[in-house]
Amino acid sequence: MAKHKIHKKRGTRSCGYGRKKRHRGAGSRGGRGMAGSGKRAHHKKQMILKRYGKEYFGKSGFKCPTSKEIKFINIDEIIRNLESFSKKEDDFYVIDLNEFGIDKLLGRGNVNVRLKVVCKACSESARKKIEAAGGVVNVG
C-alpha cells in the first residue's frame, strides 16, 4: 500500500506545500468567510457595506434575554376604534385587551362612554379616567 504525499512530507518544513505558511487551516485563500475585513481591507469593506449596510460595523448595545417588548394602547385609540374593539352589553362597552395581544392600557385621551376593560396592566391615569366616566377596569 502506497503512502500518501502528506505522510511522506510530515516532518519537513513545508509538508510539500511550498512556503511554510501555506495550507494551514483555510489554505492560501486569505481565511474563511469574512476574515480579513478589518480596518485596512478597504475593497472588502465596500462590499460589506453594500451587502449588509452600515450597521454591520461597530457596537450597538445589547438585548436582555429575559425582557420582552410590551404592547400597549392608549385610551384615545380605543375610543376611535370602539366598534372594532368592543362588544355592547347593557350600557357598557366591554373590551378584552388580552384577546388582541395588548399588555398595557395607557391614559392618553378622554373617555366619554362607559367602558368595562379587561387587561394585564393599566396605568393609574387610565384607570382614573375610565372610573370617572362610570366604567370599570379589571386587571389580571
Quick overview:
This protein is of the alpha/beta class and 140 residues long. The protein has 5 helices and 7 strands; from the N terminus they run H-H-E-H-H-E-E-E-E-E-H-E.
- Overall shape: rod-shaped
Counted up, domains total 2
Strand order of the largest sheet: 2-3-5-7
The CATH architecture term of the largest domain is: Ribosomal Protein L15, Chain: K, domain 2
Tally of extended strands?
A: 7
As a percent range, the share of strand residues is 15-25%
CATH topology of the largest domain: Ribosomal Protein L15, Chain: K, domain 2
Rg estimate, integer Å: 32 Å
> Could you give a short account of the major beta sheet?
4 strands, mixed
How far apart are the termini? 77 Å
Overall mean pLDDT: 82
CATH C-level category of the largest domain: Alpha Beta
Low-confidence runs: none
